[in-house]
Amino acid sequence: MTARYFIAAFMAYISTPSFADEVQVAVAANFVGPMQKIAALFEQSSGHKIRMSSGATGKFYAQIKNGAPFEVLLAADEQTPSRLEKKGLATEPFTYAIGKLVLWSAKASFIDDKGEVLKTDRFTRLALANPKLAPYGLAASETLKILGVYEKLTPKFVTGENIAQTYQFIGTGNAELGFIAMSQAFESGKLKNGSAWIVPPTFYSPIRQNAVLLSKGKNKPAAKALIQFLQSAPAKAIINASGYTI
Amino acid sequence: MPLTESDLQAIWLTLRLASIVTLILLFIGTPIAWWLARSKKWWKGPVAAVVALPLVLPPSVLGFYLLLAMGPEGPVGQLTQSLGLGLLPFTFWGLVIASVFYSLPFMVQPLQTAFEAIGNRPMEVAATLRASPLDAFFTVAVPLSMPGFMTASILTFAHTVGEFGVVLMIGGNIPGVSRVVSVQIYDYVESMDYLQAHRLSAVMLAFSFVVLLVMYLWRPSSKKGM
To answer: Residues in domain ABC transmembrane type-1 (chain B) (predicted)?
Structure first.
């Protein structure tokens, strides 16, 4: 119990008044970009307003458990929504996006289209998200194990607490290459800069990102409308164009 | 209190980091504080402001700029590369340098206050007795401002132990190299291992309290130089 209060004190959330036609959404940091586009479309077509908070899924879990006023959660994983459901804080989760892993470098033509660079000594730092905290980090470690280079490369690991920080490590050139989400490096299907290898999805277990309607949004039409909209064709088009599949 | 082996490693790393940073800052901070306490130059203001910056700046700003500066394109990164030292982020010495920036005001400000409290008189007396400025500094100023040195060192040490944002930004969370206690706790919280987070946090809390308690208990008897 004490541990819980301890966390509660840290994560105290300042609640803001919400209106009938407004929905409070917690969005995993990696999905903020596409969600902004989806939100714009949703607001246009439904007349409801979206109030969005972005952050780490683990943090949202602690906040929601301690009474944060979120009505919809778009998590970065499957576990957190199921955990909330088991605690009676959310309805049944559904997958809104499946993440794709890429090996990315800010340097042009540094990475070949088979990821063979991982077997060379051409780099000193390999960035990945913490496998314990981030699904993309876990997928990265699975990929390295399949390639048989995990043990050899461990001393070169630098781990970000999430993929945004991992991107920063690579983007600033402090790590020559690393694993991030495809949505971070690609825009409308094109690589923004540097070089990348899209890791075959068979190399890692699917990065399912699940969403749930939280108990605070159970009786709110705007929240329910958003949950439906997330599964509609226009939303799926945006999701697919942003480097995810669904 | 069952701490894991990696907890103990993080604690040891944190203590090593804080000790080295405190030692380095004693050497760097003392002349800066002395100059700030006695100089009448117009640029004393700007220097004091720069020294105080880490008090105001969010660690994310500091960490981000350090990451850029120490990166392959940054001025520090180019220097360290040309010296054959490689890049500093994700290394223990990178953390040391970042922490020196981060904890600078905690060394300089108490020392400056202590030096100012001495005033000019003792130094002038020492000079009339033919003590060189350096001699006078070590035989007169340093003993008179011993409480200031103690406060400054304790604050610097404790502040470095509590550092979080900067090490998260430039450390890379490498066990034994840059995974300090605060980062370890953060990992526990994020992975929802609240029990282990609680254990290690309790150690931190007790440590911080004891450090501050020692400082405040010992303070009233030595108002000189504070």
So the answer is: 11-218
- A52: which 2 tokens? 């969005």
Q: Specify the CATH number of the domain B5-218.
A: 1.10.3720.10
In contact, A38 and A65? CB cutoff 8 Å: no
Q: What is the pTM of this model?
A: 0.79
Nearest to B89 among A2, A159, A174 (CB): A174
ipTM: 0.74
Residues in chain A closer than 8 A to B195 (CB atoms)? 3
The closest of B10, B167, B152 to B93, measured between CA atoms, is B167
Q: Which two tokens stand for residue B49?
A: 């402001």
Our CA-based measurement puts residue A45 at a distance from the nearest CA of chain B, in whole angstroms, of 36
Nearest partner of A29 among A66, A77, A69, A68, judged by Cα: A77
If you write DSSP's letter for every residue of B94-149 in order, what string do you get? Answer: HHHHHHHHHHHHHHHHHHHHHHHHH-SHHHHHHHHTT--HHHHIIIIIHHHTHHHH
Q: Hey, what are B200's tokens?
A: 């290690």
Mean pLDDT of chain A: 89
Which residues of chain A neighbour B86 with C-beta distances below 8 Å? 124
Please check whether residue A172 touches B, CB under 8 A: yes
DSSP A118: G
Give the count of beta carbons closer than 10 Å to the beta carbon of residue A208: 20
Residue spans of the domains in chain B: they are 5-218
B-chain residue closest to A133, CA distance: B191
- Report whether pLDDT(B88) > 80: yes
Are B198 and A169 a contacting pair at CB < 8 A?
A: no
> What is the DSSP track for B147-198?
HHHHHHHHHHHHHHHT--HHHHHHS---TTTT--HHHHHHHHHHTT-HHHHH
pLDDT in tens, A128-185: 999 988 889 999 999 999 999 999 999 999 999 888 889 999 999 999 999 999 999 9
Contact assessment for residue A234 and residue A175, using Cβ atoms and an 8 Å cutoff: no
CA distance B117 to B125: 16
